[in-house]
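Good day; I would like, with your permission, to put a structural problem before you. A protein sequence and the structure tokens that stand for its backbone fold form the material at issue. The record follows directly beneath this note:
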Amino acid sequence: MTAWRLELGRHDWPALRCGCGRSGAHLAESFRRLLAARSARETAGHTLENHLEVQSMLFEVAPHAVPVMLAALAEDLHDCVRRHFLGMLEYLVTGESHRSEAEAGRPDLAEECVAAAREGIVTLYAEAVSGDAGAVFDILEFVDEDEDRLEFYRSALAADRSEAR
């Protein structure tokens, strides 16, 4: 049992609109494949691009995917999957609802993604400490309302990295 599996099972993916034009039913399998991947080759055909978002235009599945990705970041992921999730999280917290989603009554998908990311903010800070701090800080700039905390972590990590050199 893992937190990401529980998060994945919490949502009715078939009832959600996906950027590819189908329902989100196939996303559970895409997540499972990505999270099981132990090489870049194993991720082929299972990215989240053009499903959660298309050119930073968000679809109904997006805010539901955020907690799955955040839970997964606490796991042992292949580097390409970790980078993919961080890139997707940045698109989701900085994007905006696709026109079709706004017309369907979901104009605030980016705000929903930001709110979901805020719920896992400790996970993002843990990732900044142990992983790609630059990518994580790009996300946190849009997510963390506590500017003092953000600057504290940024400064502490910069100082730690300079001492390591």
